[in-house]
Write a structure and sequence with these properties.
This protein is mostly helical. It has one domain (about 5-185): Hypothetical protein af1432 (Orthogonal Bundle). The chain is built from 10 helices and no strands. It has helices at about 5-20, 30-50, 50-60, 65-70, 75-90, 95-105, 115-130, 135-145, 150-165, 170-185.
């Protein structure tokens, strides 16, 4: 199978899984996370001269474990699902390993060393995409995690601060700094706001 077709097959697979009634987060993550994250990853890959195919595949399938099995250990589940899917598509084993490393290392809360520029791009693009979908993070906290509005605001702010601190690439920090500063300002509850 031609490589561009493999990227499209993987994209379609992720979209279909998001549309299923069994999707843990419904269809919204497809447009609100996967599409945004893919676009960020492709932009970074082009700017930094990374392997675009590996980046595209990892970007599309990096969180599929969350959709199919739930959030806990989703990076490990995503690796297993990606490996199975890519083997079904007769993708070369060496490249499967590269994609798997990107997926496994993207989980910023685990401090997994990112051994390639592609893995750094996937991790950073995943973090950057959060700043493009703050409403989705708040919804997840309110609806799926049953937090009240104060807990949701606090957990969303903490998540974005963690994502900012874990960015690996200077280019990523430059791109997202205005949104990060705005998010901190809007989500902080310092008691200083006057009406």
């Amino acid at each position: 199978m031609e490589n561009k077709n493999i990227v499209e097959e993987v994209r379609r697979f992720v979209e279909e899984e998001c549309r299923k009634p069994t999707s843990h987060y419904g269809f919204e993550p497809y447009r609100g996370h996967f599409v945004i994250m893919h676009r960020c990853a492709v932009d970074l890959a082009k700017k930094l001269g990374a392997n675009l195919e590996v980046v595209e595949l990892a970007a599309w399938i990096h969180d599929i474990g969350s959709i199919i099995q739930g959030r806990e250990n989703h990076h490990q589940a995503s690796v297993e699902i990606a490996e199975k899917k890519l083997r079904e598509l007769d993708y070369p084993e060496k490249k499967i390993e590269e994609v798997k490393h990107c997926i496994f290392a993207h989980r910023s809360s685990e401090d997994i060393p990112k051994e390639t520029i592609e893995a750094k791009i996937i991790s950073d693009a995943d973090a950057i995409s959060n700043f493009g979908n703050i409403v989705g993070i708040l919804k997840a906290a309110l609806v799926y995690e049953n937090q009240n509005q104060f807990e949701a605001r606090k957990s969303t702010l903490e998540k974005l601060q963690r994502k900012w601190k874990k960015l690996e690439l200077e280019e990523s920090r430059r791109l997202i700094k205005p949104k990060y500063e705005a998010a901190v300002l809007l989500l902080s509850d310092d008691g200083q706001t006057e009406l």
